[in-house]
Structures are given as structure tokens and as C-alpha cells.
TrEMBL record:
EC number(s) stated in the UniProt entry for this protein: 5.4.3.2
Record keywords: 4Fe-4S, Iron, Iron-sulfur, Isomerase, Metal-binding, Pyridoxal phosphate, S-adenosyl-L-methionine
Signal peptide: none
Region feature (Disordered): 419-439
Family: Belongs to the radical SAM superfamily. KamA family.
Name of protein: L-lysine 2,3-aminomutase
Residue ranges of the TM segments: none
InterPro entries: Aldolase_TIM, LAM_C_dom, Lys_aminomutase/Glu_NH3_mut, Lysine_aminomutase, rSAM, rSAM_sf
Length: 439
């Protein structure tokens, strides 16, 4: 789709009769004119709801507010909006009020794993840093829906300094992921300040930014923003395309600017019922992404957040999609399908099964075509006993600053030097009885 095509011109003129292409391409103009009411949505799209529908939609908006950029609005197919993937991601549905008993307020327990406000520290070596509570568009499938519109703000420097302080005082953190809200809602100067503070911390090796701007407001990717970001390599940027329809000439331009500036680009999709739960749509999406130098990174199973039940698919749908990708298209176009564990266990990868059987020296596998094959394992393999004493090992790991952490979880069960033979859930009745008997 062209930049400032007829539909976009029409929307711009309805917003303000004298607006032109330079208004349209100004991200602040887009923000100022984002669509937050049903009335304005009707006016700009020509789509009309019945009084009854409107009343029910208003109740939905009281709980989960609406915000759509004029740009993203212009991608909606007005004639077929009920089946439109852009409409479904952007415009409220009365189904959002359908909260199931099994839905959770904070399914990923981000608030429980938060040592200071704004930081979620879940994995040993990396943190999620929520640096903004706002977005240019409120995705209807947002996992942090509970927070949307709640405290619509950009945290002040004092609040952010607390997060920075935590990172500075926690030397295990080598990777900082800026998220939100959308970090690119911050001004260029503020981003500059924030990145200069974080990258000045000696143990921070990489910074990543998660943003949906290339999808919902590509004009935010300005030359000046890129100039600021370029000072802070290695900086990785992850975005969130869910459907090939979102890849337009404007979003391509934004991605090209970022790729040309040397940022490795990734994409995180969410598997959504009636939006992209189709092997052909997903294949088309990932192929378009790699054409634009974006590596599909994750495909998420939809979380258990409140108000998302109408978007969820069975896990089998994700597996089916992977079956149609693995082997069928470029290896690096295939995202890792993950379920973010409810309760805060982190992302768990899920895959089709490829191992059919196993003996002491052979593995039986099947490929994407269904061909069954065998891999002969070595008759002789002497495993090295690992006591994590790298200085006295034949393998050459120059361990000047390598991590000395103990093995964790399943890694611990596999380790030679650790005598743990099982991981036992807390409060196991049988183990409690053993202790009582012993005591
Ligand atoms: C997703 C996530 C990360 C990053 O995980 P990667 O698998 O390294 O991309 C870090 N912290 C939290 C809380 C997350 O949800």
C-alpha cells in the first residue's frame, strides 16, 4: 500500500480538512489524532454499529480503552471489516468482557517477579524493564491488558533511576530488554538519556527494545531516532507483526531504516484465532518478514490474560503451523513457538515430535515429508567428567570472566558434579512424611 493513498487522504481530511501528507507522516500528529471513541471510529471509517452494539461496546471500552493510530486505521478493510485481521487487533469486541474462571489478571506473574517497580527479573542473566506505560495503539490481544489505560504515563526519571540502580547493583544482568508499553513512545532525548545510563553499566552486554511502532506507527522511526539509537550498539530490536497485511510500504521503509543502521531485527507474533491461525497466512508472513531483513523470533501461544478468550487457539494449531513451516521454508524464517508459562515459569518452547524411537546406538527420526530415517550414533564416545573445573580441563574455555554459576534445573540433573537425582515439588506429601518419620 502506498504512503498516503486515497483512503489515507480521506481519513486525514476528515480529521482536519487542511491536513496533508506531511501531517500524516508526522508521528506526533498521528498520536494526537488517534481514535479513542466509537463515534470517531464510525466517522472515519464509515462503519456503523447499531445503538445496541454501541451500548455494549461502550461498556467494553470502560474496562479496556480504545486507541488506534490513523495510519493503522487506514489498513482496515471497511467493506469486510468483520473478518479483517487489522480491525480485530485494533477495535474492541464485546467478547472482551467474557472473562473465564481460568483467566488470570497477571498470567505471567510479572508483578510477583518484580524486585523494583518497572523491572521483571525472571531469568538469571536478563531483565525486562518497563519504561513506558503507553502505546500508540492498544492491541486488543495485549497480555498486559490489565495495565492499559490504567496509569497512562511515562515513568519519570526518578522511577526509571530505581530500575537502572537495580541493574547496576545486580552484576548477573548482561541483557536488558526495554519494553512497556512501547519504549518508542518516549521522546528521542529521553531514549538517549535512558540508553546512555544503561549502556554505561559495565556488566550490561546488550540492550534490546521491544516495539510495535514499525507495525502501528512506522513514521515514529525517524532519521533522528535512528541516529540516537546508533550510538548504543549492540542494540537489538524486536517488533510485532501478526499478519502479512501489516507489511506496507510505510512499514517496509521503517524496517529498512533500522536494518540499514545495523540493528538486528526480530519479530514476535501472537497466534490469534481468526486473525492468523492459518499455516498459509503464517508462511506468507514469515517469508515477507525475512524479505525485509526481519528474523521471525517467537510465535506466542495467546496468554491467559483476562478478556482474551476469544483470541485463543488450541496448542495443536501452533504445532500444525510449525509442521507447515519446518522444512517447507527457510530455516531462519521459522519462529520458535512458545507458551509463556502461567505463574511466571518463562517461555517454554513447543515443537512437533521428530524422534520416533531410540536404541543404544540408533535414533529413528522422521522428517517434514514423513520419511523415516535412522541416525547411527557413535559406538565409542568417552564423555568427559565435568566438575566445572575449567582450568584443568582438556577443552579450552578461557575462563577469565565466564560465569561460575551452578547448574540450574534440568541442567543440574544432567550435571556430573552435582549429586542431585530428582527435583521435588514443594510440599510433596511423601517427602514430608519421610521427614516426619526421620524426625
Ligand atoms: C521474554 C522475557 C525475557 C526475554 O526472554 P528471551 O527468551 O531471552 O527472549 C526476559 N524476561 C522476561 C520477564 C520475559 O518475559
Amino acid at each position: 500500500m502506498d504512503i498516503f493513498n486515497d483512503i489515507q487522504q480521506e481519513i486525514a481530511k476528515k480529521i482536519k480538512p487542511d491536513s496533508n501528507i506531511s501531517n500524516w507522516k508526522d508521528w506526533k500528529w498521528q498520536l494526537k489524532n488517534s481514535i479513542q471513541s466509537i463515534g470517531k471510529f464510525e466517522l472515519l471509517t464509515g462503519i456503523n454499529f447499531s445503538e445496541d452494539e454501541k451500548a455494549r461496546l461502550k461498556t467494553t471500552l470502560e474496562r479496556f480503552p480504545l486507541s488506534i493510530t490513523p495510519y493503522y486505521l487506514s489498513l482496515i478493510d471497511n467493506k469486510n471489516y468483520e473478518n479483517d485481521p487489522v480491525f480485530k487487533q485494533a477495535f474492541a469486541s464485546v467478547d472482551e468482557l467474557n472473562v473465564l474462571k481460568t483467566d488470570l489478571k497477571d498470567p505471567l506473574s510479572e508483578d510477583s517477579d518484580s524486585p523494583v517497580e518497572g523491572i521483571t527479573h525472571r531469568y538469571p542473566d536478563r531483565v525486562l524493564f518497563h519504561v513506558s506505560n503507553i502505546c500508540s495503539m492498544y492491541c486488543r490481544h495485549c497480555t498486559r491488558k490489565r495495565k492499559v489505560g490504567d496509569v497512562d504515563s511515562i515513568p519519570n526519571k526518578q522511577q526509571l533511576l530505581k530500575g537502572i540502580e537495580y541493574i547496576r547493583n545486580t552484576p548477573q544482568i548482561r541483557d536488558v530488554l526495554l519494553s512497556g508499553g512501547d519504549p518508542f513512545m518516549l521522546s528521542d532525548d529521553y531514549i538517549d538519556w535512558l540508553l546512555s545510563e544503561i549502556t554505561a553499566i559495565p556488566h550490561v552486554e546488550i540492550v534490546r527494545i521491544g516495539t510495535r511502532m514499525p507495525v502501528v506507527l512506522p513514521y515514529r522511526i525517524t532519521d533522528n531516532l535512528v541516529k540516537v539509537l546508533k550510538k548504543y550498539h549492540p542494540l537489538w530490536i524486536n517488533t510485532h507483526f501478526n499478519h502479512p497485511r501489516e507489511i506496507t510500504s510505510s512499514s517496509k521503509e521503517a524496517l529498512a531504516k533500522l536494518a540499514d543502521a545495523g540493528f538486528p531485527l526480530g519479530n514476535q507474533s501472537v497466534l490469534l484465532a481468526n486473525v492468523n491461525d492459518c499455516p498459509r497466512i503464517m508462511k506468507n508472513l514469515v517469508q515477507k518478514l525475512v524479505q525485509n531483513r526481519v528474523r521471525p523470533y517467537y510465535m506466542y501461544q495467546c496468554d491467559l490474560s483476562e478478556g482474551l478468550s476469544h483470541f485463543r487457539t488450541p496448542v495443536g494449531k501452533g504445532i500444525e503451523i510449525l509442521e507447515s513451516l519446518i522444512g517447507h521454508t527457510t530455516g531462519f524464517a521459522v519462529p520458535t513457538y512458545v507458551i509463556d508459562a502461567p505463574g511466571g515459569g518463562g517461555k517454554i518452547p513447543v515443537m512437533p515430535n521428530y524422534i520416533i524411537s531410540w536404541s543404544t546406538n540408533k535414533v529413528v527420526l522422521r522428517n517434514y515429508e514423513g520419511i523415516i530415517t535412522t541416525y547411527k550414533e557413535p559406538e565409542k564416545y568417552e564423555s568427559k567428567f565435568c566438575d566445572r573445573d575449567c582450568d584443568n580441563c582438556d577443552l579450552d574455555l578461557q575462563l577469565d570472566e565466564a560465569d561460575e554459576q551452578k547448574a540450574l534445573g534440568i541442567e543440574q540433573l544432567l550435571s556430573d558434579e552435582d549429586s542431585t537425582i530428582s527435583l521435588v515439588p514443594d510440599n510433596n506429601e511423601r517427602y514430608n512424611r519421610r521427614e516426619e518419620d526421620a524426625g
